[in-house]
Amino acid sequence: MEVQLLVTSNSGQAPRDYVFPLKNRVVLGRSPESPIPLEGAAISREHVVLELAGGSVYATDLSNNGTWINGNRLKRQQRTPLENGDSLELPDYQISVQIRQPGAAPAIEQPQARAVEVASPAEPLPPAPKPVRPANDQAPKIPRRSFSLLEIWVLFLAVLAVALMIYYGVLVP
């Protein structure tokens, strides 16, 4: 099974196209071992894993900051099937997913050899279709940041420290 990922960054970089065989699993994130270099404070070292199981490709969110498929947030650690043409969203990135069997015609013409682990950027895929807005005219879902337990405790302790300083007159005479 081959996976073609067109990676578009919200930072204005040119889209990058990667084609690689998916034999078992591949982890995307900031880690140097990631086949696709993703950068940013909101990207985890191991952000999302793509894996092949039973002839299907699945995505599993490993991060605290979230991963979305076609605008729907994945539950952390829950394996979710990917389909050809799905849009995988990470903080500051949108990744268009093309899945094909080895030897099948590519979604776009590839000028370079296809049997490499990570190919050089190629001609970009056509943009993924935009999600259709519901008929009841609800606003689109905006990804929200999740806070770790450590971040919540640090914030709690900071507020507590300020409150005690105010109470004992250290900050306000």
Question: Descriptors for this entry?
Answer:
mainly beta, 173 residues, six-stranded antiparallel beta sheet
Largest sheet: 6 strands, antiparallel
Stretches with pLDDT under 50, minimum 5 residues: 107-122
Average per-residue pLDDT, rounded, comes to 78
Strand order of the largest sheet: 2-1-10-9-6-7
Helical stretch tally: 1
The CATH architecture category of the largest domain equals Sandwich
Indicate the structural class: mainly beta
Tertiary shape: elongated
As a percent range, the share of strand residues is 25-35%
Estimated helix fraction: 10-25%
Task: Specify Rg, calculated over alpha carbons.
Answer: 20 Å
- Please report the first level of CATH classification, the CATH class of the largest domain: Mainly Beta
Summary, kept brief:
This protein has 173 residues and is mainly beta. 11% of the residues lie in helices and 29% in strands. The chain has 2 domains: 99 residues, Tumour Suppressor Smad4; 29 residues.
